[in-house]
Design goal:
The chain has 245 residues and is α/β, with parallel strands linked by helices. The protein has helices at residues 41-47, 65-68, 71-80, 95-106, 173-178, 201-206, 208-211, 223-226, and strands spanning 4-9, 23-28, 31-35, 57-59, 87-91, 119-123, 130-132, 135-141, 151-157, 160-164, 183-187, 216-219, 235-236, 242-244. The strands form two sheets. The chain has a seven-stranded mixed beta sheet with strand order 6-5-4-3-2-1-14. It is globular.
C-alpha cells in the first residue's frame, strides 16, 4: 500500500532555520493523520496546499505549544469551514483537560460553542496499541517534562509503521518505538552539545544500529545542529520534505 509522509513543520519551538513548528502529515489508504500540530501548523498546511479538512486524526506527542498549540486554530478553521465529520485528537493523559483550557485562553467561549462536527479526544495509554479512528497508535513514555506525560508515538498506517520521537532526552523506550519502523522521525536538537530533555545527533549516531528502523529522518534542529548540517550522515527534514513508503 502507498503511504506518503510529508513534513509540514520541521522546526523547533523558535522557528530556527525559518522552519515551522512540529507537524507531519501521513496519508494512507485508510485516512489522513497528523503527527503533532504546533502553533504554526495551520499556516504551514495551507502554504503546502494540504487541505486541513482532509485530516481525520491528529496525534500529539506532548502538550507543549510547538507540538499541540495549533489545535485550537485547526478546530476553529474547521468550524468556519463547516466541517461535519468528526476530528479525532489523540495524545497523552491530560489532553482532554488541556485542550479546552488552551482554546479558552486564546478564544473565550470557543471550547463550548456548538459545532457541526465532534472533536473526539483519545488519551493514549502507554505501550498498548490503541485504535485511533482508522489507524492504530502505540505510545512510549519519554523524558521531556510538559505538565503531562510526554510520548514517542508509533503509528500503523497502510501496512507501514511510522515512529515519531517527539522531544526527549535519550531513553531506551526510543528503541521500542523505532524497532522495525519503516520511518523514524526523530528530534536531533543539537549536534554534540548536551541540552537537558533533548537529543543531540551524536547520541542518535551512537545508537543508530540499535534503533532498528529502516530510515531515520531528523527534525527539530537548533542553530547548533543547523550549523553542522553538512556533517550529518542522516537526512535532515525541511518543511515540505516528502517520504514515500
Amino acid at each position: 500500500m502507498n503511504v506518503t509522509v510529508q513534513v509540514v513543520g520541521a522546526g523547533d519551538a523558535f522557528g530556527n532555520g525559518g522552519r515551522f513548528q512540529a507537524c507531519t502529515s501521513v496519508r494512507a489508504p485508510e485516512g489522513h493523520a497528523l503527527l503533532d500540530c504546533g502553533a504554526t501548523s495551520l499556516v504551514a498546511l495551507k502554504r503546502l496546499g494540504i487541505d486541513p479538512g482532509s485530516v481525520d486524526v491528529v496525534l500529539v506527542t506532548h502538550l507543549h505549544g510547538d507540538h499541540f498549540g495549533g489545535l485550537p486554530f485547526l478546530i476553529l478553521d474547521q468550524q468556519f469551514s463547516r466541517r461535519t465529520r468528526p476530528l479525532i485528537v489523540a495524545g497523552p493523559p491530560g489532553l482532554a483537560e488541556r485542550l479546552p483550557r488552551t482554546m479558552e485562553a486564546l478564544y473565550p467561549g470557543s471550547s463550548t460553542v456548538e459545532r457541526r462536527f465532534a472533536v473526539e479526544i483519545v488519551e493514549l495509554p502507554e505501550r498498548v496499541e490503541t485504535p485511533v479512528g482508522p489507524f492504530r497508535a502505540t505510545a512510549f513514555a519519554v523524558d521531556h517534562p510538559s505538565g503531562a506525560p510526554a510520548y514517542a508515538l508509533r503509528l500503523a498506517a497502510g501496512g507501514k509503521l511510522i515512529a515519531c520521537s517527539g522531544d526527549t532526552g535519550w531513553t531506551e523506550s526510543l528503541l521500542d518505538a523505532a524497532a522495525g519502523a519503516d520511518l523514524f522521525i526523530c528530534e536531533a536538537y543539537t549536534y554534540e552539545r548536551a541540552v537537558r530533555y533533548h537529543l543531540p545527533y551524536a547520541t542518535l549516531r551512537e545508537h543508530r544500529e540499535r534503533l532498528g528502523c529502516k530510515r531515520l529522518l531528523l527534525t527539530h534542529p537548533s542553530p547548533d545542529l543547523l550549523a553542522h548540517s553538512n556533517d550529518l550522515a542522516d537526512q535532515l527534514a525541511d518543511d515540505g520534505t516528502i517520504v514515500a513508503l
